[in-house]
Write a structure and sequence with these properties.
The structure holds two protein chains of two kinds. Chain A is mainly beta. Chain A has one helix and eleven strands. By secondary structure, chain B is mainly beta. The chains are: A mainly beta, B mainly beta.
Amino acid sequence: KAGVTQTPRYLIKTRGQQVTLSCSPISGHRSVSWYQQTPGQGLQFLFEYFSETQRNKGNFPGRFSGRQFSNSRSEMNVSTLELGDSALYLCASSSGQDVIWGKLFFGSGTQLSVL
Amino acid sequence: DQQVKQNSPSLSVQEGRISILNCDYTNSMFDYFLWYKKYPAEGPTFLISISSIKDKNEDGRFTVFLNKSAKHLSLHIVPSQPGDSAVYFCAASAGGTSGTYKYIFGTGTRLKVLA
């Protein structure tokens, strides 16, 4: 069974630009969560989608948005990039039941650098 | 407001000895806890979980202990092996009681197992 796939693996952008990150969950998984990892801050929850509906959102500005498609693939968009948005962005999938009771399966992440 | 805290940024242990990683939380609504291991350039990998109705869960060399009155959990690795060298994250969720669909992660502890 293929794991969670995130593309691209690395991105370099400049301030003010926008970026779109993609995540393909494990086949059959309907829940996709996004997390931001920065040094010293751990993993910060961005949002979670289940069957194309956002069920929960973290404390990030409106520049951060996401969506989920009917095939459960998800995209995350960051507009008007700031230097502080440089981070590893991780996507995790779950069957939906598992989000409540346990496992998130993570992708390898997209490393975003904002110059 | 850091609801999940890992106060030790790093830990070094000799091979074959016990590694103990600690995690404290402040939200009494948390009812499910997980530990993840993360190698550089990879996404976090699920290790072990525990629900609030238990105080101990074992899986091979890994044991998680939960002390609800102290709002504290710990991960024991016995015996420690060089391949265990990684960053370990604890995470907590109130999903079972409040229907939220997110995990709050600690900032991680870097474990180094010395050969």
